Amino acid sequence: DIYDSYENINNLYTLNQEVGNEVVVDQKIIDLLNYAIDMYNQTSGMMNIAMGSVLKLWHDEREYASYHPNLEGKLPLMSDLEEAAKHTNILDIVIDDERNTVLLKDKLMRLDVGAIAKGYATEEIAKKLQSLGVSSYMLNVGGNIRLIGSKANGEKWKVGIQDPDESATNNNIAILELQDFAIVTSGSYQRYYYVDGVKYHHIIDPSTGYPAENGLTSVTIVSDDGTLADGLSTSLFIMGKEKAEKFWKKYNDKFDVILLTDDDQLYVSEGIADDFQSDYKVNVMKK
């Protein structure tokens, strides 16, 4: 939680308040931060939890617009975005695994784990349920889906991938039939606001400080690791179709992917093509 404090608990909110000071945190927070840093390196910086100072500028304007629908929305000032971008160096997150401490060296840095925390939390819930011997269930944590086993009758679970087009007659662009996987979607249609008639969504490209505009409407990741699925859905959306496909080909043993482009072209990696139903013309990506 980056927004609230809790008595006798050092959480991510605490880290953001105590920048410049070492803070002792729970092992699960250490694990999350280490995982996120690894993903930053694997995605060439597309998934950066150190971007909180930039993301907050967009978050505040988006929130203001949602609470004042009769007023014209505003963009963050470019000068503010450029200044905030100076404080997003992931190397300024210093973790001491032996002492369970975290230090944010840059006093203007802020953590924002929105691109990965929900998947991490969902995966922790899945591990807990499995340790209790639960062998058949579907978790839906704010749209992050985690499947364990099959249905009680032995059938696979059916999971719909939302159609971003609100006027579409079918609510889903596709149905997946799977078991033992996590399914996470990121898209430009999920959180957004308008300024001068232009839509600005919540997935920010670290290279520009602005919402990513790389030709994709949504990215769905299928993996047996919910944390990975969450982080990659954001990262591949920012990459755009060509780079996302190349990334999948490099790490295809880790995940499968569904890409929907701005011109309604649907691309599905071959690992899940047989578990995939859609009214769209489906382009199968091969290794």
What share of residues are in beta strands?
15-25%
What is the H/E order?
HEHHHEEHEEEEEEEEHHEEEE
Task: Sum up the overall morphology in one term.
Answer: globular
Low-confidence stretches: none
Going by helix content, strand content and strand pairing, the class is alpha+beta
Q: What strand line-up does the widest sheet have?
A: 4-5-8-11-12-13-15
The helix tally amounts to: 7
Q: Rg from C-alpha positions?
A: 19 Å
* Terminal CA distance: 38 Å
Number of strands: 15
Biggest beta-sheet profile: 7 strands, mixed
Mean of residue pLDDT values: 94
The multimeric state of the shown protein is single chain
Helix content: 25-40%
Topology (elements, then pairings):
Layout: H1 12-17, E1 23-24, H2 27-42, H3 52-67, H4 78-85, E2 93-96, E3 101-104, H5 117-131, E4 137-141, E5 144-148, E6 157-162, E7 172-178, E8 182-187, E9 192-195, E10 198-201, E11 216-223, H6 226-239, H7 241-250, E12 256-261, E13 266-269, E14 276-277, E15 282-285
Helix pairs in contact: 5-6, 6-7
